[in-house]
Amino acid sequence: MIWNPNKECMSREQMRALQSKRLQKLVQYVYHNVPFYRHKMQAMDVAPEDIKSIDDIVKLPFTTKQDLRDNYPYGLQAAPASEIVRVHASSGTTGNPTIVGYTRKDLAVWSEVMARALTAYGVTRDDTFSVSYGYGLFTGGLGAHYGVENLGATVIPTSTGNTEKHIRLIRDLKITGIACTPSYALYLAETLDKMGLKKEDIGLRIGAFGAEPWTENMRNEIEQRLGLKGFNLYGLSEIMGPGVSYECQEQNGSHINEDHFYPEIINPETLEQLPHGEQGELVFTTLTKEGMPLLRYRTKDLCTLHDEVCACGRTSIKMGRIVGRSDDMLIIRGINVFPSQVESVILEMQEFEPQYMLVVDRVNNLDTLQVQVEVRREQFSDDIGRMLAMKKRLADRLKSVLSISADVRLMEPGSIERSQGKGKHVIDNRQLK
Amino acid sequence: MKIKQLSIFLENKTGRINEVTKILSHAGINMQAFSMAETTDFGILRLIVAEVDKAVEVLREANFAVMLTDVVCIKCRNEAGALSTILDRLSEQNIFIEYMYAFAEDDRANVVIRPSDIERCIEILSQCQCDVINNF
Description:
The structure holds two protein chains of two kinds. By secondary structure, chain A is an alpha/beta fold.
């Protein structure tokens, strides 16, 4: 089934014409409403009139996460505050979160693109769907939630938390679909085993998995253990949230909602646009966004774009799996974590040397983060209570900055390996099988 | 008499205590008493040695986080109730004990105490029937 054949199955020429028209309008809009973009364009000697078709997008400036941080909180917002009806935030690297405001129309677009994704997965009005992304500032929960409602299926806003209770709900409410991170899906399968239940005891048939990288092997394992079919759901809060792209039944790439989010692949070093089929950094321009529209936002995700015609009937461009990052961002339990966030916390505390190591692992299918830090020689105390309090202070600070808890490990001074040049601060032991 | 105890910060890592004993052995320093306090990821090794300054020097040279802590050492009779009597006196006078460790040999027992108020603690101990000692 296709939710919106008019848009999802548009001919390439029509799509290009639509994108060209929308880009022109967008550039006029940001030029006159966002001083940041006006100044950038003036510095590059580009006027809105210079943008005549979608191909002219290469004349426009890029936007980075740093720009969002520098313009905290509302510097990149184009719509007046009275038009903003909701705000989401994602963690920032220096303590400043990234703030994204949505107008009523933005929310309508969001639930439209989410409904397209869910329909492509095979979800219908007869399904009961559990949304197990976190509800809150994170876009996952509410984003998926309104998509399910828009489609007309029943939404069960389970969020994250008590997994056994969640499984009982899946069984008792005859929940047929679930949206969550792939690692949570595996954890769910494990808990099912522990409760002595089998996949036949529950009736899950569709999974919408995203917010962290995953592999075909993980898909096979989740599908086998939960008895469902798992689909990729891609998104990022700066652009919208979940629903930027989605897999169809063919499962060989994720269709991008390119009437709203125009994709490009660039070489992250030279910033040149690369032809489809070549791997590089994924860049999005929000063609229709009102609240916080972005020109050429650098996602730092590395992947490939494909324009071969899909057997499902959709004509939109597909993106391959995310194969890596062009920066040092880690995704832990679906949350973006930068080593520099940990560093800034440690530098603020006089108890510790500016030496640290992040050890990421996956235990029982849940990501774990350990932060190893060296205690300064003169801060060492014979009093265990004081040492534990020092450890707890750091753990509390990290939790508030990272939004996930980290296991702090106090290390002897000098024990963390010093590296020449760019310090190595991450050991990622997760095996993406 | 106060005694300087060495406190050494150790990660929970195989062979780490051995590193300390090796360094002290090379320096010819004999350990007279020690105890190990541990948490899930680190421990504090507490040591009484004869040559405190030299021990601190060689351990710091080897990059250990070392500090000195004042403790009281006493000798009491190695028999049922001996320690209890002493601790009764301390608690009557509101002396709080952060930690202690002990070992017995023949008819005497040696006890190391880290009290909340070390001066008062020594005063009280001197008044009861136990020997506050300078070393073992």
